[in-house]
């Protein structure tokens, strides 16, 4: 990618992967691409340094798993010395240690280079992000408007006090300004700047998100935010509890644009909750069908069930949907009540039945190991997964609870001294879809039993599945999944994609052990003071009544 532009250098840091059975979390960086478009629209010259896109086959051993992309020193060396500032996207908490090291390398080479951070991790831990790194500024929440004001202030040497949605260091003091209100209309936001990214390279390396397709893949955002406030979810930190859809006709316009410009044919929607309003999804599907674009689209991150009835399910299928997911998180009504997951079981199964009748490929996401979980809750999950299979669900994904920073559950556990921000904590963030949990926060169930319950759920689900012309649904599921490991063609289920990614991530984990990101000693030193820093931040906020002590019992949230 060209690095000839001096105003701002936007960096996508190396992605993080580990051995696990799941579809890949590595996708084109849609947030960064939106920021780039906004900057260019306002006349700024932008350089893109995409660590993954420039070295998609490079692997470096990490504190857990491995980094995918350019080495940290290589990134620092590639920064244009004429850039007026650097912007780094930090979406996931497990990326933070690598970003901290990257910032230190940039500051060694360019001591006076302003560094701006943005993304979901930054929005969840703003003070912590500034104090534990040498970054100068942070952007919280939606960034398109905020980044423009911030860079103008940096270029013109203006003050920052009135810029909403930022934090900054001044005289070794951290200042966090008021959050910026969400944009109420997102229809006029420019398309992501995919011209500056290696779109084909991501596809060729199967960094596509969702189920693998043999069509060129570009992610889409049709909506922003989520109106719900689940206690385990980090989305409210980034988006606030607000769901804003784009005009469905304009979303189809964007898809058609990518079909013509890039030859794209597969579109995973990266929305938090794409389908909420029945009228919206109906209009979207009808427009796709009318234009005869002959594309595939997916909802890999999960969606609501309320708007999907028989009519909508058949429209979704006809419009090119190849994979979708529901995320009830638990088959236990009591658990869903405790985590504020507002979902009715009967309505979910009505929607699943409609999807099955339309021959839609449907996955369901479950999470076990919530702090309040008891064996009785997992027993309810066991019955639930059997019912899912018999109602026509294609695939099941069972993850271990992870205490994401900034969430209600996290604060409850942290204020009760059940979480320490050490290397073990950061490792467990990567273990949600591992075979065995490295950490657990439910006193009533051991790590071994969590693993065994997870195994039981998978066996129960795939044994109970209705498969045509098959005497053994479990064996047939495994055979189908194994076919996907070495196939160069598109997959028919998420299980195939998960098996392939498990195989690749296992091989890459072994290979990456010969090349570490930093020494083990430096790694331990990096994490050493982080818990003390965060505890001091929390203590100060409590003393100033900025926040309240969270209840020790997570059932009281």
From TrEMBL:
The keyword Endoplasmic reticulum does not apply. One of its GO terms (cellular component) is cytosol. GO terms for molecular function: 4 iron, 4 sulfur cluster binding; catalytic activity; cobalamin binding; metal ion binding. It holds the Pfam family Radical_SAM. Residues 13-161 form the B12-binding domain. Residues 212-446 form the Radical SAM core domain. Keywords: Iron, Iron-sulfur, Metal-binding, S-adenosyl-L-methionine. SMART domains: Elp3. Its cofactor is [4Fe-4S] cluster. Gene3D superfamilies: Cobalamin-binding domain, tm_1862 like domain. This is Uncharacterized protein. It comes from marine metagenome.
């Amino acid at each position: 990618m060209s690095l000839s532009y001096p105003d701002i250098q936007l960096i996508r840091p190396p992605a993080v992967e580990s051995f696990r059975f799941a579809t890949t979390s590595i996708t084109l960086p849609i947030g960064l691409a939106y920021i780039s478009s906004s900057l260019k629209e306002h006349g700024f010259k932008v350089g893109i340094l995409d660590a993954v896109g420039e070295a998609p086959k490079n692997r470096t051993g990490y504190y857990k798993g491995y980094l995918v992309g350019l080495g940290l020193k290589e990134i620092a060396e590639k920064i244009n010395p004429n850039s007026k500032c650097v912007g780094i996207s930090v979406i996931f908490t497990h990326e933070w240690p690598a970003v901290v090291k990257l910032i230190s390398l940039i500051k060694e080479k360019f001591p006076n280079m302003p560094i701006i951070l943005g993304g979901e991790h930054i929005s969840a831990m703003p003070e912590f992000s500034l104090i534990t790194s040498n970054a100068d500024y942070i952007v919280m929440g939606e960034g398109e408007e905020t980044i423009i004001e911030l860079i103008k202030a940096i270029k013109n040497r203006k003050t920052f006090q009135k810029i909403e949605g930022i934090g900054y260091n001044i005289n070794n003091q951290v200042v966090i300004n008021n959050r910026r209100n969400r944009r109420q209309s997102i229809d006029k936001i420019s398309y992501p700047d995919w011209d500056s990214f290696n779109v084909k390279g991501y596809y060729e390396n199967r960094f596509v998100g969702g189920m693998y397709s043999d069509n060129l893949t570009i992610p889409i955002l049709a909506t922003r935010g989520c109106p719900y406030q689940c206690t385990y979810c980090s989305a409210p930190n980034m988006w606030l509890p607000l769901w804003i859809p784009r005009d469905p006709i304009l979303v189809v316009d964007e898809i058609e644009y990518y079909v013509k410009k890039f030859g794209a044919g597969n579109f995973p929607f990266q929305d938090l909750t794409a389908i909420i309003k029945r009228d919206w999804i109906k209009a979207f599907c009808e427009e796709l069908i009318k234009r005869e674009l002959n594309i595939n689209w997916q909802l890999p991150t999960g969606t609501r069930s309320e708007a999907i009835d028989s009519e909508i399910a058949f429209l979704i299928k006809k419009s090119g949907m190849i994979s979708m997911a529901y995320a009830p998180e638990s088959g236990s009504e009591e658990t869903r009540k405790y985590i504020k997951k507002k979902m009715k079981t009967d309505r979910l199964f009505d929607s699943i039945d409609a999807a099955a009748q339309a021959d839609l490929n449907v996955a369901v996401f479950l999470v076990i190991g919530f702090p309040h979980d008891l064996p009785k809750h997992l027993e309810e999950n066991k019955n639930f997964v059997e019912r899912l299979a018999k109602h026509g669900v294609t695939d099941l994904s069972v993850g271990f609870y992870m205490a994401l920073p900034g969430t209600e559950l996290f604060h409850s556990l942290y204020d009760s001294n059940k979480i320490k921000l050490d290397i073990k904590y950061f490792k467990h963030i990567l273990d949600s879809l591992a075979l065995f949990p490295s950490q657990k926060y439910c006193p009533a169930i051991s790590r071994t039993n969590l693993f065994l319950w997870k195994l039981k759920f998978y066996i129960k689900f795939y044994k109970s599945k209705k498969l045509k012309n098959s005497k053994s649904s479990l064996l047939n599921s495994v055979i189908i999944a194994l076919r996907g490991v070495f196939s160069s063609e598109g997959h028919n289920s998420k299980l195939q994609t998960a098996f392939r990614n498990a195989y690749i991530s296992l091989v890459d984990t072994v290979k990456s052990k010969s090349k570490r990101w930093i020494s083990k000693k430096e790694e331990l030193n990096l994490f050493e003071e982080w818990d003390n820093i965060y505890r001091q931040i929390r203590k100060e906020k409590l003393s100033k009544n900025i926040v309240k002590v969270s209840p020790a019992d997570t059932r009281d949230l």
